[in-house]
Design a protein that fits this description.
With 508 residues, the chain is α+β, with helices and mostly antiparallel strands. It is built from 21 helices and eleven strands. The relative contact order is 0.15.
Length: 508
């Protein structure tokens, strides 16, 4: 009986596919211009995912080693993989439709990351005021406070002299920073609800990665059943409970729904206030949509800045000469004034900024982005991607292009010197996407990481027993990580300067 059901299902799927190919003969003919792997009936190239499900990075590197453009069949659905900057830039400029139906929606809903183009334009309009220079200056106080907290967190390790993995401490402080700037309250001050939200957020990110690598989990019916059978449906409810409550409290506080005008809303440093002000002017922004936008902001910001800071600390610990140069640049801004300002970070610390950008390039946080072109897309060599093709742009490999970066596997801040930038095509740096749908929070991330590294390097000299980080040391779900963590030893600078008998061997 079971065999008959499976056979019938296979027959129905094959029949649907054949009918589709007959109806769209020209479309499938156009795809033949792109190199592809031999595709098996029904499963396409799904067999290639076997053994690759736990490491998207290695799968992408292995797959794309065969060409710059490659057609991959996810069952009966074609996906065009691209890894060259000019191809990706062309696609991201010509089409703004991100279309991977239902991907992550159960956890994070519909927001700026996965909204359709028309909805995304409204989201961008609503959130743009939250990322102006004026608002960045308001977030700066939170960056300072939590960077100072991070310095305190590492004091025990500096006293004991042990080498520690800094990830858990960095992500914890970063969650407080993001939630405080987003909804006005740090997780630490939210009690049990905050713990539930934080745990559910981590689980949601894991599930998002699992759904990306297991194609059958992209079928809504199967995914929903999986969530219920594993008990994760309750976690989704816990995840949504906190932002829903905060949003309702904020709406009640302002009494916007009853009798207040938008002009009466007090100025605030929290992103939620900008969301309410802009969202209430848009008919499509229901309370659920506002909640989902909040969770998208939190989701996208927490791990990206935390990973960048962890990798940056590790790279500075490995490259002692670079760390010394960054430290001297930091000390220069305090030469006449011992107070750090947002202006210092906006307009100064250029070499530090080179290091941050190089870290984002070498360890690209979002290794892929997707688009679906609703019109034909003409590439630089006049090859045409037929309309309605799902396109997967591998940003990580674009950032490893030897035509753009000398010795791309090496972490080298000189990749972002003024001269190196002039020698590359404009906007070829792909870590934050490209074109109209590039990341809105680029300056926010830069300000956050800059503040943290200023505070850390003023108090500590960083060392490590790790000699280098190669691709073999890396793994990924949706973000690149180091398999064995970010192992740092913290030496107090004041102790080093005041006690010449300590015996620390520090070379530059």
């Amino acid at each position: 009986m079971m065999l008959m059901l499976i056979s019938s299902l296979i027959f129905i799927i094959m029949l649907i596919k054949n009918i589709d190919q007959l109806k769209n003969k020209q479309y499938y003919k156009s795809l033949e211009q792109f190199p592809s792997f031999p595709a098996y009936p029904l499963i396409g190239n799904l067999n290639m995912l076997l053994g690759s499900l736990t490491d998207l990075l290695k799968f992408m590197e292995k797959t794309m080693s065969l060409g710059d453009r490659l057609l991959f069949w996810l069952g009966p659905m074609p996906i065009l993989f691209l890894k060259k900057y000019d191809d990706i830039a062309t696609v991201l400029n010509q089409t703004q439709y991100r279309d991977w139906p239902g991907f992550g929606n159960q956890w994070f809903g519909i927001g700026m990351v996965n909204a359709k183009y028309e909805e995304w334009k409204i989201s961008r309009k609503v959130f743009t005021p939250a990322f102006t220079t004026e608002m960045m200056s308001k977030y700066f106080n939170t960056f300072e406070k939590n960077s100072s907290s991070l310095v305190e967190t590492f004091k025990p390790a500096s006293l004991s002299g042990e080498i520690i993995n800094v990830w858990e401490d960095v992500i914890k402080v970063n969650i407080d920073t993001i939630t405080e700037n987003t909804v006005g309250v740090a997780i630490e001050g939210m009690g049990q609800e905050g713990k539930y939200f934080s745990n559910a957020l981590h689980e949601g990110m894991k599930m998002l990665a699992k759904q990306a690598m297991l194609p059958w989990l992209q079928i809504r019916l199967i995914y929903n059943a999986y969530l219920k059978l594993t008990g994760r449906s309750k976690l989704i409810d816990q995840f949504h409970a906190l932002p829903t409550k905060i949003l309702k409290d904020k709406l009640n506080e302002y009494k916007i729904a009853q009798n207040s005008s938008l002009e009466d809303v007090p100025s605030s440093k929290a992103i939620i206030d900008q969301l309410i002000k802009g969202g209430l002017l848009e008919s499509s922004f229901t309370e659920i949509r506002m909640r989902d936008e909040l969770t998208h902001i939190i989701m996208t910001a927490i791990e990206t800045t935390a990973l960048n800071l962890c990798f940056l600390m590790l790279m500075l610990a490995i490259h002692q000469d670079v760390q010394q140069k960054v430290y001297e640049e930091i000390e220069e801004i305090f030469k006449d004034n011992d107070t750090l300002t947002a202006d210092h970070l906006f307009n100064g610390l250029k070499y530090t900024e080179q290091c941050i950008k190089e870290t984002s390039r070498r360890f690209t946080h979002a290794i892929i982005t997707t688009r679906r072109n609703h019109k034909e897309c003409i590439l630089k060599d006049n090859m045409i991607i037929p309309a309605n093709t799902l396109i997967l742009a591998v940003l990580h490999l674009a950032n490893q292009d030897p035509d753009l970066y000398k010795n791309p596997q090496k972490w080298d801040p000189e990749h972002f010197s003024e001269q190196a930038i002039k020698n590359r095509p404009k906007n070829s740096f792909m870590s934050f996407g490209h074109g109209p749908r590039s990341c809105i929070g680029i300056r926010y991330a830069m300000l956050s990481v800059k503040t943290s590294i200023v505070y850390l390097l003023r108090d500590y000299h960083l060392t490590t027993n790790i000699k280098e980080v190669t691709n073999e040391d890396l793994t990924t779900d949706l973000s690149i990580r180091r398999k064995l963590g970010y192992l740092i030893k913290f030496l107090r600078r004041k102790q080093i300067e005041n006690d010449n008998t300590m015996g620390y061997e520090i070379t530059y």
